[in-house]
Amino acid sequence: QVQLVESGGGLVQTGGSLRLSCAASGRTFSRYIMDWFRQAPGKEREFVATISRFGSSTDYADSVKGRFTISRRNAMNTVYLQMNSLKPEDTAVYYCAAKAPGSDETDYWGQGTQVTVSS
Length: 119
Prior knowledge:
By secondary structure, the chain is mostly beta strands. The protein has no helices and 11 strands. It has strands spanning about 5, 10-15, 20-25, 35-40, 45-50, 60, 70-75, 80-85, 90-100, 110, 115-119. Strands 2, 4, 5, 6, 9, 10 and 11 form a 7-stranded mixed sheet that branches. The chain has a 4-stranded antiparallel sheet with strand order 1-3-8-7, with no helix packed on it.
């Protein structure tokens, strides 16, 4: 069992930055691919970014490429999402997720952290 706890959300003005953190319990953090998703009010949850087990590979949604950076520190059981040049359309609840390699579905979800970007 893995528990994920996000932090770092808040209110920021357009053009500002935030860094989200997701701390995982247990000793198996490096077994999982880690993802960030987000869900805006009235919209479906959408993929934001992913990072491989040891951080050698990352990928991003087109809407955040060049502005967001995902990283992880396996020794700290933590994955991060650095968000720069924030826009009002980035307003959402952000979730981290853990997925075993080869799995089609997410194995564990965090509870989410609210990010609000004011115009």
